[in-house]
Structure formats: structure tokens, C-alpha cells
Specification:
- It is a single chain.
- By secondary structure, this protein is mainly β.
- The protein folds into three domains: 124 residues, Immunoglobulin-like (Sandwich); 102 residues, Ferric Hydroxamate Uptake Protein, Chain A, domain 1; 653 residues, Maltoporin, Chain A (Beta Barrel).
- It contains eleven helices and 53 strands.
- The protein has a 22-stranded antiparallel β-barrel. Strands 3-2-5-6-9 form a five-stranded mixed β-sheet.
- Strand 21 and strand 22 form a beta hairpin.
- The radius of gyration is 30 Å and the shape is globular.
Length: 966
């Protein structure tokens, strides 16, 4: 096998161009972004020329290494000369050009000395300006200038977006459940077994070609979103041959070389999955059979559980990252085969200290602390990913592509907890957990693009398949208690294991939890585009298409626990004083001697711990894109037939068999008014949906050791409906600059929220009656030279200032929930009142230096809504500042120094006690109202009056990465 892989790499490395270069690109109309057919392109110095094809594209090959000027001319348009086009051996240079229509003259106007780099950037912004829907994104080039390691890191750079729990995206202040993820045009299933969300830390950022968030709907987009459609596009097949190798290492200020608590895992943990070391013993029968066994047989089975419960001590190693990528473009006469292959592996180590508290009688004057804990969390996160894409271009009219990505993401967590379950009890608990979670995801897409009738008709299709396997092979927890740690009596100050007698649950030690969630999504879609004109000025595009999609999920969990065996003899209580590395040894299982017993295994798996689920989606749409002079209207309707199924056993004789079929007709319209060639005014309306996720409907309950909450599903959830309105003004002044301001308003019916229940520490999913969400987004990107007019300071031309700010307010109607809580008006659960991104970047390609600073901040948001006896739990906003300095040497090697989370602010979740005793001045009150809609900042964190539920401390991360391009 190793020999085969070596030969494969040798073959790819041997495929090269001749020692010449090429230039290719697209020519578009500067005003409306349409491609121009038949543009004359001439390189006079080497007497080469061509014209653009039916898609406005061109290619000139066989150019000797050097610097060229290229002329572009077209009847009715101003001609243009692009200079400083640098041709490199064995590479395709991408050059996208915009041409402006002539005004009242037939004479050519030549614009000379336009730089190639500036022209490509201008073309990119022109295409963004002419998108049909409101969208924002980031390119691979911009991603390179940040220290971002995963796709979730990248997402927080985009206007109106932020990240929750380091992996879930929040768009326009709406939490993760209101967004949908696509990879290379294909839908992705939920990566989580306990929430409707996709974990964006699964994909490394260096595999991305671009990332786009679409915020307003068009008929060809899926209907199940309210915040945004996150479209992840991985690196496409190359236009040039390349090989890239990168390696990096990182240091965390409170982690690296500090003490790490760990345990014996499997030999494949470094890749990200368990090889079976943690698996349930093959000798263990099903729960139904196990419960029929005698206590002697159960005790005998306990001797087959050969797990190492020891927790070891070592030093945290530095973080590391590795990636190798190779791309080849192979020509067969007029046909072209493109290949790209990439593999990466990263490991990040993190230590975090978490203080946890719980209160009774929540009130700023009478809150009563009832428990407190201190957790030390030791985490190893591994991410391994491979990408293999290929494309075959038969000719300009027919292209086939096959894109594949496989990613393994694992988190190995050790928690050591110390504290008091009852603050008035002298007993101190010492608990620990070993928690390994592995996400394995494959996604593949086979796509085709076919053009007919001189590019006037276009057929595209996509067959897709994705599979996610999320497993917890063995979550093991143990609990000891010390009766009185201040006593000198060994009977009182010696830790004793909290082991149950014929009982189980999170209050007892010796627990083992196993789960596996398998889900796949498959289907296909087809789109047909027909372009036609009505006269010379009315340009039309008619697009129809359909989608068939099928999802299936199979989830199971098994909950086992060591118990004290007290049948047929007495349990040896001396075993309870044994430490972790000895207590559950095989010698301590079953009957130890006549009349003396050890431990046994009990099965507390419930009927609801397994379920199957599925959904079928059939969608069709019709869309018209009408352009007349400065007006553009994109409108149409989408039809979706959605069937959802949940099957679970509730009790021995009671079953849940839920099947719901809903048809929806969903209109949308986008009106774009081009005020001039640089300015747009956009209006949009759409109706979208928010469907319950499988997990939210399933009756399965899960106890999270880290936050101590028990999550329960709700089969009675209903689909939410959202009416979306958007207005946006945008201007593109040139020189890679942009300014835009947007207003949006969303009306929700039956929004789904996460709510605390009356039962202590239980949360579930509920439908509120209605909600309204509205906000303003402001974005700008400008050169400092445009603000500061100092011609002598040339470096200002290389400095870019950028920022995007979203200010959002929402109000939810919870009258249908019959809550007795005093808070009758509040924001949507998970909605941030503001999101701020800002940065300053210096980039000079001549000297190879790049320096950037990025800031991200979100406002306070509700993590869990209130119950009748508990106020809401809020997450306090934090500010992130990241820095990067990079230097390129000879266009071959790049060195990057990254600093992440410079401020290292604590993550605080607090119980909002709804009292304001602080007096604010006029400016403070105004700022509170603008940014949070809350004059007195009652929803803000008040360290004196609000109760901290948990507080987590982090460190700064510093990394150095070397990249070499062969």
C-alpha cells in the first residue's frame, strides 16, 4: 500500500508544463457585471491575440517568462491596457477585467497603466456587486492573511457573523439553528447529536477556496433558514501546477509545557478516531437480554470490562499543524484534466479552569448559593482532513467535476472537578471524566456543466452524498467524596467512591456512556437556464430546477454503571477507598471470597436511548432574472414537500411513531436598482422555514457532565415560518473599497428556543408564539490613503481599514408558554444584540510583508431561556483580537507569526437577576439603547447583582508556520 501511494505522488509530481506561462480570465461589463463576448485581446510584444468566448472567458498560452502589457478593446466600450502582467513558468495567471461602456461617442478612450492586481480585484468586487441576493464572503487570499485555523475561525470575519462555542455560527444575531450549511453546492447534515447545528471546526481553513454567506433568499436556494446559507467551497481543480507544504507549531500561555492530566487512549487517537480500545466488550449482550441475567452472571460480565481508569500526569506538548497539497493540470489536445489533492493534520492542546455555581431563590437581594465547583479541563483536539478533487473539461461547453472531502475531528477531554454539591454540607466531591468524541464526515459531489446554443442555454446538475458518524466510544466518570477534609480522622478525610447499590445516574461514580450517531444525506439537483432578450435593452434569464434529498439517522446510546454487589454476601466497603487506577480492577469484580462481594455491572439504558429518524425533501422552483437598463428584478417561487419521521420506543409497550408531511409554497423577490456603475440599492422579500431537527423531536435525554444540564427532546415541536425583508445600499468606490448599509426585519411564527424546565438542570426545546427580529448592518473597506491625503507616505496605499457592524434587536412573544417568570419581554434565545468585526491590514507584494490585526466582538445573548422558577442564563459577550505578521521570500517560502485571542477574556455565563441599581448618564443610556435596545442595560452583566453560573479562563495562543511552494 505504501509503495502504491509513493508511486501516485511521484506520478503527480512528474506532470509539468513546458517552460512557458499562460494568462486566462474573464471580461465583464463594469456596470452590470454581465460577461462580454467577442472582446479583442492583444499582446503586441509577442504578437499574440484572442477573443472572449460565449462565457466572456479567454486564454493565451505559450508566453515566455516576462512582464507584459495586454490590450482589451470592444465596440461601444472604452479600451483598456493592463500593465504589469507577470508571466511565470508553468503557471496560469488569472486576469479578470472590467470594461466601461462609452458615453455619446464612437471614439476609443484608452486607459493605460492599469495594474493587473488592481484590475482583478476590481472585477471581483464587480461580480459581488451584481449578485442577485444579499451576501457577504471571504476569499482564500483574505483567509491567508488571518491566523484562522478552522472554518469556524474564518466565519467570524464575515459581516454579521459570529461564532458560539468555537464552532457554531451565529448570523445576524440568530443562533445556529436558523442557518444551513452547504459544501460545494451540496447540503450537509447536522454534525451534532444534541442540537440543530453544523460544527464548522471540522474543516481546516487552508482547504477553502472561498466562503460565502447568503442572507436573502432566492427561489434556487433552500428554504430552511432565517439567518443565512453558509456556502463552503473547497479548493477547485488548478489552472496551474503546484505543490505546497506547510508546517507550524504553537504555544498557549496557560497550556503548553504546563501539567496535563490524561489517560490511556488508543493508538490511533493522533488521527482522530478510536481503534476499538474504548469499545463495549463483545461479551456484553443487549439490554433486554442483560436484564434477564442473574446477579452472578452480571458480576461475571463485569470481569470482561478491561478499561484503564488511571489518570496520568505529563506536560502539554506544543500545538502543531501540517499540510501537503498538490495540483496538476494535464492537457489532451483541447481537453483538460485537473487534479488537486491535499492532506492535513493538526493538534491543539488547551487547558481551561472553570468555576461553576448554582443558586436558589434568584434575586439580587436574596440569591442563595447552594453549590460550587472548580473544574480543570484538559483538552486535546485533533483534526485530520483529506481532499481529492478532479475535473475533466471536454471543451468550452462541457465540464465534469468530482469533489471529495473526508474529515476526522476529535476532542479528548479530561475534567477534574472539586467542590461542594451542598454549600452547607462539609462534604467535598472529587469527580473526574474521560470524554472522547469523534466526528467523521465524508462529502462527495459529482457535478456537470453543459452549455448549448452559443451559451444561451445552460444545464447544471449535482449528485451528492454525505455521511457523518459521531461517536462517544466510552465516556467514563467517577466521583469520590470526602466527609470532612479539615478533619484529622482518616474515616472523615479519606476520599470514598460514590458507588450506588442497585442504582445509577450522574450523582454516582463508575458511570460509562456509549453512543453512536450515524447519518447520511443523499440526493441530486438539476438546474436549467435559458437566456433571452426582448429587444435590445431587456435582458432576461429564466431558471428552473428541482431537488430530491433523503436523510436518514440511526442513533443509539448505552448507559452502564458499576454497582456494589450486595446479593448473596456483603459488599467490601474498603474497595471504595481505592484510587482510580485500582478501584475497578478485574480482581475487584464479583464474589471476592465466601460472603464478601466486590463490584458488578448494572445497565441503566432506557428505551428512549435509541431512535431512528429520516426525512424526504422534494423541491422545485421557477425563477426569472429581468434586467432593463438600471433595473434588475430576480423573482419567483419555490415549492417544497417535506416528510419527517421519528421512531423510538418510549416504554416496554409504548412507541413513538411520528410522521409529518408539510407542503410549502415560498415566494421571493429581489429588486436591484443600479444608481450608477458603482452604486446599488437593493430590496428583497422572502418567506422561509425553520424545521425541527431530529434530535429536538426525539425523546432521548443526555446528561452533559461539563455544564451539568440534562437535555430532553420534545416530539410536539412545530415548524417555524419566517417572513424576511431586506433593504441595502452599497457603493464600490474602486481600489478594492466598499461601503454598504443594510436594514433587515424578520417576523417569526413558532420560533424554536432552548428553555429551562421546572425540574432542576433540565432543558428542552419549545415553540414560542411569535417573534420579531430587526437590525442594521454597516460594512466598509477602504485604503488609508483615501482617508489620509499624504502623497509622500506611500505605505498608506498598502494599508486597508475594514469593519462590519451589525446592530440587532428582537422581541419574542412567550404568552403561549404560560410562564410565571417576571420577564415578559426578552430577546430571542441565542440572539446577539450586536456583532462587530474590524481590522487593519498592511500588504506589500514588492517587499513580501503582510501585517494584520483583527477584532471580533458580540453582545450578550441568552443561552437558556427562563423557567417558572429560574431566570434566563446569559452568555456575556467577549472581545477577540488576533494578530498576524507574515513574510514571503522569493515567492516560494512564507513565514507566518500568529497571535490569537490576545485579550484572553473570561467566558462568563450568568443568571440575569433583572435588577438595575446603576445610574447611567445620557451617553451611556443612548449607547445601551442603540446597541442592545435596553436603556438601563438590565440584560447586561452586573458583577455585583447577577449570579455567575460558570466562568472559564483561557490563554493566548502564539504560532509560527512555514509554507513552501515547490
Amino acid at each position: 500500500m505504501k509503495t502504491t501511494i509513493l508511486l501516485f505522488f511521484t506520478f503527480l509530481s512528474s506532470l509539468t508544463f513546458a517552460q512557458n506561462g499562460s494568462v486566462r480570465g474573464t471580461v465583464v461589463d463594469a456596470k452590470n457585471g454581465t460577461t462580454l463576448i467577442g472582446v479583442n485581446i492583444v499582446i503586441k510584444s509577442v504578437k499574440k491575440s484572442t477573443i472572449t468566448d460565449g462565457d466572456g472567458k479567454f486564454v493565451i498560452s505559450g508566453l515566455p517568462i516576462g512582464v507584459y502589457e495586454i490590450d482589451f478593446s470592444f465596440i461601444g466600450y472604452n479600451s483598456k491596457t493592463v500593465s504589469e502582467v507577470i508571466i511565470v513558468a508553468n503557471e496560469f495567471i488569472e486576469l479578470n477585467v472590467t470594461l466601461e461602456e462609452q458615453k455619446n461617442t464612437l471614439d476609443e478612450v484608452v486607459i493605460t497603466k492599469t495594474r493587473a492586481k488592481a484590475e482583478s480585484i476590481k472585477s471581483l468586487l464587480t461580480q459581488q456587486k451584481n449578485n442577485a441576493s444579499v451576501s457577504d464572503g471571504i476569499s482564500a487570499e483574505s483567509i491567508k492573511k488571518t491566523p484562522d485555523r478552522t472554518t469556524s475561525d474564518v466565519l467570524k470575519r464575515i459581516s454579521g457573523a459570529s461564532i458560539q462555542d468555537n464552532k457554531f455560527v451565529v448570523i445576524r444575531g440568530l443562533n445556529d439553528r436558523y442557518n444551513v450549511a452547504f459544501l460545494n453546492g451540496a447540503p450537509l447534515p447536522s454534525s451534532e447529536s444534541d442540537r440543530k447545528a453544523f460544527s464548522f471546526d471540522i474543516f481546516p481553513s487552508n482547504l477553502l477556496d472561498n466562503l460565502i454567506i447568503t442572507k436573502s433568499a432566492t427561489p434556487d436556494l433552500p428554504a430552511d433558514f432565517a439567518g443565512g446559507v453558509v456556502q463552503i467551497n473547497t479548493k477547485s481543480v488548478p489552472d496551474k501546477n503546484f505543490q505546497t507544504f506547510s508546517f507550524g507549531s504553537g504555544y498557549n500561555t496557560i497550556t503548553t509545557f504546563k501539567e496535563q492530566r490524561t489517560y490511556e487512549g488508543s493508538s490511533t487517537d493522533w488521527i482522530g478516531y478510536d481503534n476499538g480500545t474504548r469499545a463495549i466488550p463483545s461479551t456484553l449482550p443487549s439490554t433486554a437480554i442483560f436484564n434477564t441475567l442473574s446477579y452472578q452472571d452480571k458480576a461475571q460480565l463485569a470481569k470482561t470490562f478491561e478499561y484503564d481508569w488511571r489518570i496520568n500526569s505529563q506536560k502539554f506538548a506544543p500545538n502543531y499543524s501540517f499540510q501537503y497539497s498538490i495540483g496538476r493540470s494535464i492537457k489532451f489536445n483541447e481537453k483538460t484534466l485537473g487534479l488537486i489533492f491535499s492532506i492535513s493534520n493538526t493538534k491543539s492542546n488547551t487547558f481551561a479552569n472553570v468555576k461553576r455555581f448554582d443558586y436558589d431563590n434568584p434575586d439580587p437581594n436574596s440569591s442563595l448559593l447552594i453549590s460550587k465547583f472548580s473544574d480543570n479541563n484538559y483538552t486535546e483536539q485533533v483534526m485530520t482532513a483529506g481532499l481529492a478533487n478532479l475535473s475533466f473539461k471536454f471543451n468550452d461547453n462541457h465540464i465534469l467535476s468530482f469533489k471529495n472531502i473526508y474529515s476526522i475531528n476529535s476532542t479528548d477531554l479530561v475534567v477534574e472537578r472539586t467542590g461542594q454539591r451542598d454549600i452547607n454540607d462539609t462534604r467535598v466531591l472529587q469527580a473526574d471524566v474521560r470524554w472522547f468524541t469523534s466526528n467523521k464526515i465524508y462529502s462527495g459531489q459529482l457535478t456537470g456543466e453543459h452549455s448549448f446554443n452559443n451559451k444561451k442555454q445552460k444545464l447544471t446538475w449535482n449528485a451528492f452524498y454525505s455521511n457523518i458518524n459521531r461517536s462517544i466510544p466510552n465516556l467514563r466518570r467517577n466521583i469520590y467524596s470526602i466527609t470532612d477534609p479539615n478533619s484529622t480522622d482518616p474515616n472523615l478525610n479519606t476520599p470514598r467512591a460514590e458507588i450506588a447499590y442497585n442504582n445509577g445516574g450522574p450523582d454516582y461514580g463508575g458511570g460509562m456512556f456509549f453512543s453512536e450517531n450515524k447519518e447520511d444525506i443523499k440526493g441530486g439537483k438539476i438546474d436549467l437556464i435559458n437566456k433571452f432578450n426582448l429587444g435590445k435593452e431587456v435582458i432576461n434569464e429564466f431558471k428552473v430546477g428541482g431537488l430530491i434529498q433523503k436523510r436518514d439517522r440511526d442513533f443509539y446510546a448505552r448507559q452502564l454503571q458499576y454497582n456494589a454487589l450486595n446479593l448473596g454476601g456483603n459488599f467490601d466497603t474498603n474497595l471504595l477507598t481505592l484510587p482510580n487506577d485500582q478501584i475497578f480492577n478485574l480482581a475487584n469484580m464479583g464474589v471476592l471470597s465466601p460472603g464478601v462481594n466486590g463490584f458488578t455491572i448494572a445497565d441503566f439504558t432506557k428505551f428512549t436511548d435509541s431512535y431512528t429518524a429520516g426525512s424526504d425533501l422534494i423541491a422545485g422552483y421557477a425563477m426569472l432574472d429581468n434586467r432593463y437598463k438600471f433595473l434588475r428584478l430576480v423573482w419567483g417561487v419555490r415549492y417544497e414537500e417535506y416528510t419527517q419521521r421519528i421512531n423510538s420506543r418510549l416504554t416496554e409497550n409504548d412507541y413513538l411513531a411520528l410522521e409529518d408531511k408539510i407542503d410549502n409554497l415560498l415566494p421571493s423577490a429581489n429588486l436591484i436598482i443600479s444608481l450608477n456603475s458603482k452604486q446599488n440599492l437593493r430590496f428583497s422579500y422572502s418567506k422561509t422555514l425553520n424545521r425541527p431537527e431530529f434530535r429536538e423531536l426525539a425523546p432521548f435525554g443526555f446528561y452533559d457532565f461539563t455544564n451539568q444540564f440534562f437535555t430532553q427532546g420534545n416530539p410536539l415541536l412545530k415548524t417555524g415560518e419566517i417572513k424576511n425583508f431586506d433593504v441595502r445600499y452599497e457603493i464600490y468606490p474602486g481600489k478594492n473599497q466598499i461601503f454598504s448599509v443594510s436594514y433587515f426585519r424578520k417576523k417569526f411564527k413558532n420560533p424554536i428556543e432552548i428553555q429551562q424546565q421546572v425540574n432542576n438542570k433540565t432543558i428542552t426545546y419549545v415553540n414560542a408564539n411569535a417573534a420579531v427580529n430587526s437590525g442594521v448592518e454597516i460594512e466598509f473597506r477602504t485604503l488609508l490613503s483615501s482617508i489620509l491625503n499624504f502623497p509622500s507616505l506611500k505605505f498608506l496605499e498598502d494599508m486597508t481599514l475594514f469593519s462590519n457592524i451589525a446592530i440587532i434587536q428582537s422581541e419574542v412573544d412567550i404568552s403561549n408558554l404560560n410562564s410565571a417568570n417576571i420577564n415578559t419581554k426578552r430577546p430571542l434565545q441565542g440572539q446577539s444584540p450586536y456583532v462587530v468585526n474590524a481590522g487593519l491590514q498592511y500588504l506589500n507584494n514588492d517587499n513580501g510583508w503582510s501585517i494584520s490585526a483583527n477584532l471580533n466582538r458580540t453582545g450578550n445573548r441568552i443561552a437558556f431561556t427562563e423557567s417558572e422558577v429560574k431566570p434566563a442564563i446569559w452568555e456575556k459577550g467577549r472581545t477577540f483580537i488576533d494578530l498576524q505578521i507574515s513574510k514571503t521570500f522569493n515567492k516560494k517560502m512564507e513565514v507566518k507569526l500568529n497571535v490569537q485571542n490576545l485579550l484572553a477574556q473570561d467566558l462568563i455565563f450568568y443568571q440575569n437577576n433583572y435588577k438595575n441599581s446603576v445610574r447611567y448618564g445620557t451617553l451611556e443610556t443612548l449607547a445601551n439603547q442603540v446597541f442592545t435596545g435596553d436603556y438601563h442595560n438590565q440584560d447586561g452583566y452586573n458583577s455585583i447583582e447577577d449570579d455567575v453560573i460558570w466562568r472559564t479562563r483561557f490563554g493566548q495562543s502564539i504560532s509560527l508556520t512555514f509554507t513552501y511552494n515547490f
